[in-house]
Amino acid sequence: MNEHRHSPDIEKWITLIRAQGVGPTTFARLLKQFGSIDRALTASVAELAKVKGIGLRTAERIRASVGRFDVDKELALADKLNVQLMHAADKRYPPPLRAIYDPPPVLYVKGTLERGDSLAVAIVGSRRCSTYGAEQASRFAHVLASAGFTIVSGMARGIDTAAHRGALTAGGRTIAVQGCGLSQIFPPENGELFHKITQRGACVSELPLQYEALSENFPARNRIIAGLCMAVIVVEATERSGALISAQAAVDNNREVMAIPGKIDSPLSVGTHRLIKQGARLVDCVEDVMETLGRIGDGLKGHVVAAAAEAEAQMDLPLFDAARLNLADGERTVYESLDGEPRHVEEIIGATGLAAGAVNSALVSLRLKGLIKQLPGSMFIRRRG
User: Fold this and answer.
1) What is the CATH number of the domain that holds 178?
2) CATH of the domain at 327
3) What span, in angstroms and rounded, lies between the C-alpha atoms of 289 and 299?
4) pLDDT tens for residues 159-181?
5) Contact in structure between 106 and 31 (CB atoms under 8 Å)
6) Tens of pLDDT along 202-237?
7) From CA 98, how far away is CA 209, in angstroms rounded?
8) Based on the structure, what is the number of domains in the chain?
9) Within this chain, do residues 187 and 324 fall inside the same structural domain, yes or no?
10) Based on C-alpha coordinates, what's the Rg of the chain?
11) Which long-range contacts (CB under 8 A, 24 or more apart) does 51-57 make?
């Protein structure tokens, strides 16, 4: 993604989404009803009132407020801050996010989004976390980022900050979804972290650049965190933690939810343990995460893997380039043992000299990264590329 290259007609998209009474869901209904942004922007009050979910009063608000938002000022500030604006019809818009129920019509991006970011895992949890929680968030993020996964979180204090830092120390990619505009940094003490994330990933938001970090912004922010990922891992969550909103958004959008257990008498783990009771996958090691993600890949569960598979079919290329991924030693050993001929898993174990568990974990990871294919009968082969 090149800086300053905003999506074509971005001005029109901003004008519509900033009209009073227009949110992501209403925006999508307007576009469906009228067929184009231009037609939606010029629709009369009577025409707007006929759209599902829009009554006369809302229609009047929309009609009266179209054009009031200063788009030129917003774009000038975006250029000054090196922030790119892209709309949902842009092919560079993250495919997993586009597939959720109410994707942001306009996404603000500072940093870079890459094709490989579709292989993403969110790590979220309480702001007032324990030392144990911070350590687990950092550990899981570090190992998953080392294996080539992009770590997504909300850059909040506590678990989110630990997750981003864990990914960065691994030299991996991470994406922060802010609950404020990108001219703001919240919390303010994360200024240095914000800068590092934009160098090794991106900070993104759906909010206008100068919007402050208000409490009402964060529930909607959490759906973007879930939408960018294959799965959400909750590390610590109190009974009313915002991390539970991310988990619910993951469920609503057919993503996997995993939870790391904590002390049974800790208030910081009440929400986490409730998730486990409700069916979230209990994970206590990265191998558990890889196994769960492998099931997602095998069943093409969710829009993330399906979108990636569709892109691969169209381009006839591996989803990810082995030379560009941070492959763990075991993954690289297994990958190099494969060629254009199918190999049985037992043959791979013998050729690599690795333990069966290590080989199986590496095969799951390589399959998710699009570098190998699994064939019937526990056979594997390198993808052509």
Assistant:
1) 3.40.50.450
2) 1.10.10.10
3) 16
4) 999 999 999 999 999 999 999 99
5) no
6) 999 999 999 998 888 888 899 999 999 989 999 998
7) 21
8) 3
9) no
10) 22
11) 51/26, 53/25, 53/26, 53/29, 54/21, 54/26, 54/29
- Which helix (H) or strand (E) segment holds residue 133: the answer is helix 131-146
Q: What residues contact 102, with CB distance under 8 A and at least 6 apart?
A: 23, 24, 25, 28, 223
Which structural domain range is residue 338 located in? 316-382
Residues 353-366: tens digit of each pLDDT? 988 878 877 887 78
Q: Using an 8 Å Cβ cutoff, are 98 and 104 in contact? A: no
User: Is 9 inside any structural domain?
Assistant: no
**What is the C-alpha separation between 110 and 37, in angstroms, rounded?**
25
The answer to whether the predicted template modeling score (pTM) of the entire model surpasses 0.70 is: yes
- The whole-angstrom separation of Cα 383 and Cα 335 is 10
Alpha-carbon distance of 18 to 31, in angstroms, equals: 14
> Could you tell me if 123 and 270 lie in one domain?
yes
Instruction: Output the DSSP codes for 231-291.
Output: EEEE----TT-HHHHHHHHHHHTT-EEEE----TT-GGGHHHHHHHHTTPEE-SSHHHHHH
d(CA 256, CA 122): 10
Angle, helices 329-336 vs 345-352, to 10°: value is: 110
Mean pLDDT of the chain: 87
135 plus 262 within the same structural domain: yes
78 domain-assigned: no
**Do 251 and 334 belong together in one domain?**
no
